[in-house]
């Protein structure tokens, strides 16, 4: 079994980006600037945005975190987005999800200037992705592709099973794994809450990408020998014995599934850190787009 070490690879990527930023500075160019809007006080969301800001500092990017209250109206958020669209200092920005229920997420994501949409959530960018055009690929799927690439995991002709059809992971992942090129050229099955007999499907998979959010859902009996496992689950499970009062738990029963797997991502330290590294990569791309 080979561990797909997202923590290590994300560090390599951050070092590569740091070098790029040094070159920009040496040429007297403006460094990339990422902004993040966070609405409300969700603990996990605040942690993620804080790690994004920290990652920006680490590679030498500028960053701005914009906090808005839990009672923010849709109009107020749309106004803020328009402000960032027009602000020439900002190369790219994200709106941390999930949003409070009074706000229509799809409407908000459509208000982002596609050229600053470093999350790749605007329908224009999603469409470009599906059509093999160059664009921002959502950070989590992009991170998974990068991990498969750097560990040279064969995807061509393999049966990839994606668990979950969310707009930010499952759906784009199912498209990307079936595209031409590497990593891609897989035969893809996407499964979701209405899928019948999921074990029958997962047990035929060469590659499983699980983005379900149900701790320890995928058991050893559900997979075949030498399967490649990508665990996107990051559920906080209460645990009094740990210092933070919770442990981050993936969708995969790692202890038992890892014994059968050829490659597997750990949680934490797998897909999560890659997501942050690829957001930086998209921000660098956005900066290059705007100053070409
Ligand atoms: N607009 C938007 N863009 C996102 O990319 C986005 C989002 N909203 N909403 C929530 C999800 C989730 N997400 C993660 C990022 C990093 C870790 C990460 O670094 N995880 C660490 C553990 C971090 C911890 O201690 O909680 C790890 O897996 O090793 C996890 C999850 C980005 N998301």
UniProtKB/TrEMBL annotation:
NADP(+) binds at residues 164-166, 234. PROSITE patterns: THF_DHG_CYH_1 (PS00766), THF_DHG_CYH_2 (PS00767). GO terms for cellular component: cytosol. One of its GO terms (biological process) is L-histidine biosynthetic process. It catalyses: (6R)-5,10-methylene-5,6,7,8-tetrahydrofolate + NADP(+) = (6R)-5,10-methenyltetrahydrofolate + NADPH; (6R)-5,10-methenyltetrahydrofolate + H2O = (6R)-10-formyltetrahydrofolate + H(+). Pathway: One-carbon metabolism; tetrahydrofolate interconversion. Keywords: Amino-acid biosynthesis, Histidine biosynthesis, Hydrolase, Methionine biosynthesis, Multifunctional enzyme, NADP, One-carbon metabolism, Oxidoreductase, Purine biosynthesis. InterPro entries: Aminoacid_DH-like_N_sf, NAD(P)-bd_dom_sf, THF_DH/CycHdrlase, THF_DH/CycHdrlase_cat_dom, THF_DH/CycHdrlase_CS, THF_DH/CycHdrlase_NAD-bd_dom. It holds the Pfam family THF_DHG_CYH. Residues 138-288 form the Tetrahydrofolate dehydrogenase/cyclohydrolase NAD(P)-binding domain. GO terms for molecular function: methenyltetrahydrofolate cyclohydrolase activity; methylenetetrahydrofolate dehydrogenase (NADP+) activity. Its EC number is 1.5.1.5, 3.5.4.9. HAMAP family: THF_DHG_CYH (MF_01576). Homodimer. Catalyzes the oxidation of 5,10-methylenetetrahydrofolate to 5,10-methenyltetrahydrofolate and then the hydrolysis of 5,10-methenyltetrahydrofolate to 10-formyltetrahydrofolate. Belongs to the tetrahydrofolate dehydrogenase/cyclohydrolase family. This is Bifunctional protein FolD. The lineage of its organism: Bacteria, Pseudomonadati, Bacteroidota, Flavobacteriia, Flavobacteriales.
């Amino acid at each position: 079994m080979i561990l797909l070490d997202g923590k290590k690879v994300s560090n390599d990527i951050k070092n590569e980006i740091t070098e790029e930023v040094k070159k920009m500075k040496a040429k007297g160019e403006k460094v990339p600037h990422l902004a993040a809007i966070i609405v409300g006080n969700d603990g996990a969301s605040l942690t993620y945005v804080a790690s994004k800001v920290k990652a920006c500092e680490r590679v030498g990017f500028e960053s701005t975190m914009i906090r808005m209250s839990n009672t923010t109206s849709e109009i107020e958020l749309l106004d803020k987005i328009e402000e960032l669209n027009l602000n020439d200092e900002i190369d790219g920005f994200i709106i941390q999800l999930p949003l409070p229920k009074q706000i229509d997420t799809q409407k908000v994501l459509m208000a982002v200037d596609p050229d600053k949409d470093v999350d790749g959530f605007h329908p224009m960018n999603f469409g470009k992705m599906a059509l093999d055009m160059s664009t921002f690929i959502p950070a989590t799927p992009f991170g998974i592709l990068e991990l498969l690439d750097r560990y040279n995991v064969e995807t061509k002709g393999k049966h990839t099973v994606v668990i979950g059809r969310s707009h930010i992971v499952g759906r784009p992942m199912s498209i990307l794994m079936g595209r031409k090129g590497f990593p891609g050229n897989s035969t893809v099955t996407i499964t979701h809450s209405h899928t019948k007999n999921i074990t029958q499907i997962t047990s035929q998979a060469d590659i499983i990408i699980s983005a379900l959010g149900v701790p320890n859902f995928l058991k050893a009996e559900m997979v075949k020998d030498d399967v490649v496992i990508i665990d996107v689950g990051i559920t906080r499970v209460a645990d009094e014995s740990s210092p933070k009062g919770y442990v981050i738990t993936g969708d995969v029963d790692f202890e038992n599934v890892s014994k059968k797997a050829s490659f597997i991502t750990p949680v934490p330290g797998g897909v999560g850190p890659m997501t942050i590294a690829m957001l930086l990569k998209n921000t660098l791309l956005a900066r290059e787009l705007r100053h070409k």
